[in-house]
Amino acid sequence: MGGMGSVMTVNSKGQFLNWNIHKTDGSTETIVIDKKESNKY
Fold it and tell me: This protein's superkingdom (predicted)?
């Protein structure tokens, strides 16, 4: 991701999307997106 070697996967659970970012240092970050609320901005 962004040329830094990270890998992103997306899992869908009902109305939510989980963006899982696996970084090269071994850490993982998860961003939860509510599909119904995502277009409000």
Answer: Bacteria
